[in-house]
Amino acid sequence: SLQACLFDLDGVIVDTAKYHYLAWRHMAQQLGFDLSETQNEQLKGISRMESLDIILRLGGVVLDQDTKEQLASEKNQHYLELCAQITPQEVLPGVLDFMNEVRRAGIKIGLGSASKNARLILQHLDMLPYFDTIVDGTLISRGKPDPQTFALGAADLRVPAAACVVFEDAVAGVEAARAAGMKAVGVGDPEVLAAADRVIPGFKDFSLHDLMTLFQK
Ligand code: BG6
Ligand code: MG
Hints:
By secondary structure, the protein is an alpha/beta fold. The chain is 43% helix and 12% strand. It has 9 helices and 6 strands; from the N terminus they run E-H-H-H-H-H-E-H-E-H-E-H-E-E-H. Helix 6 (118-124) links the parallel strand 2 and strand 3. Helix 1 packs across helix 4 and helix 3 (48-59) crosses helix 4 (65-83). The radius of gyration is 17 Å and the shape is globular. The two termini are 15 Å apart. 6-O-phosphono-beta-D-glucopyranose is lined by residues 9-10, 17, 20, 43-48, 51, 76, 113-117, 137, 170.
């Protein structure tokens, strides 16, 4: 039975996925090429440096390590500027109601994010107290789709993988959850997130009861 819910951050709890995209797209355009929304799907859930490598490959651009690190740091500065105004009001609809219900049911809550900015964003949202564990990009050596992020979260909560449900908006994140032996609920487009066990459009009007029935069918 369900003992823990593990949440991705960007694109699941708050729509920072759009800021990551804006910042990467701006960088790509400065390098002379565009970054489409379809191309951006393969960046979701992927670490900063790996994302940069994918983007440079898409643009057919080869750069040395120093220049790449410079670009990644500029992208992050831009991203943080875009995030600076985030307030608790930007928590996506229904997320807090759902988490409160999960807590009341005695089910643990964990964060599993590739982002090194995850704690900062949660701070902006006043959401740090919701989490029994926080696994972010500073703690992992292998990013999604590797299962490490979620495996670490479950281990910290002392919950077996089979008793965890992961909420993810990224293809790589869904893959990571499945590879960890957990159930994956995609949050977003069912065509993009076809590998998920179930897909929901968001948490608005989504209850723990809905989650249970998703996995009874
Ligand atoms: C993930 C995002 O949550 O974090 C990716 O989906 C991002 O787009 C990754 O690249 C790393 O984030 P950060 O904030 O450490 O650059
Ligand atoms: Mg995400």
